[in-house]
Amino acid sequence: GYFKDQSFSFYYPENLEMLSDASAELIPISPTNDTELDDLDAVYIGGGFPETNLTKLELNRELMQSLKLMAEDGLPIYAECGGLMYLAKDVEWKGKKYSLTNILPIRIKMHDKPQGHGYYRAVVQSENPFYKVGTQINGHEFHYSAIYEFDENINSVLSVIRGNGCFDKRDGLVYKNVFASYLHIHALASPEWVNGMIESAKKFKELKKTKILIEG
Questions:
Q1: Separation CA 182–CA 58 (nearest Å)
Q2: What φ, ψ does residue 14 adopt, rounded to 5°?
Q3: Which listed residue (70, 81, 100, 187) is catalytic?
Q4: Residue 166 is a catalytic residue
Q5: Looking at the chain, which runs of residues are DSSP E strands?
Q6: What is the pLDDT of residue 142?
Q7: What distance, in Å, lies between the first and last C-alpha atoms of the chain?
């Protein structure tokens, strides 16, 4: 599944095409209108401008609660930039706070000037659901939001060589099978991302089958 509406509209077409070519069935999700998630094996939340639609996003508690429960069960979730914002406790914009999924222990604030803008390079330093340790990732970042509060024990797996990332030259926040960052990647330049998405989805699909057999 992938978020697709006025809040989350930034996806390189090639990213979705390469997932499809790798056997993924792509299901669009509207975080403002859909209230339930289908039987998904992974979720991709791309970039966009969720700050312009925070009231509607906040009101759809059903979808946020569903996503949080599935994240706790091990659903692979890959989120970039706007997607990272959606996974936060809340987002502050123009003096008002909007409660979101609270999947990650972070708080975010919107600023008038870019908090990260330009080419980006990072190295994967520790285990995570999508990238092998040692992988160098190239991409870009462009965001007006910034994390102003976070749990000091939060797991960050990317060391940022060029760019800003989340905080202190760190990025790639990981919780269970959730991976969130300010990094935008292009699948043609990062084919390992496609492999990571597909393999994570397959593992979760098998996990669900095993769980059904045990419970049955």
A1: 21
A2: -65, -30
A3: 81
A4: no
A5: 2-3, 28-29, 43-45, 77-80, 90-93, 96-99, 106-110, 116-124, 136-143, 145-150, 155-162, 170-175, 178-181
A6: 92
A7: 26
pLDDT value for 81: 95
- CB of 182 within 8 A of CB of 81? yes
CA-to-CA distance for 133 and 126, rounded, in angstroms? 5
Q: Give the pLDDT score at 116.
A: 86
- CB contact set of 155 (below 8 Å; sequence gap of 6+): 126, 173, 174, 175
Query: What φ, ψ does residue 156 adopt, rounded to 5°?
Result: -120, 125
What predicted TM-score, i.e. pTM, was given to this entire model? Answer: 0.95
Tens of pLDDT, residues 81-108: 999 999 999 999 999 999 999 999 999 9
Burial of 75 per CB tally in 10 Å (0-12, 13-18, 19+) = buried
Q: How far apart are CA 143 and CA 114, in angstroms?
A: 6
The CA-based diameter of the chain, rounded to the nearest angstrom, is 54
Chain position carrying tokens 């992974």: 42
Q: What are the tokens at 146?
A: 């910034």
Interval 106-161: pLDDT, tens: 999 999 898 889 999 999 999 999 999 999 999 999 998 999 999 988 999 999 99
CA quadruple 200, 30, 9, 188: dihedral, nearest 10? 20
- In this predicted structure, what is the pLDDT of residue 114? 84
CA neighbor of 200 nearest in space, from 38, 44, 16, 9: 44
Q: Please give the single-letter amino acid code of residue 214.
A: I
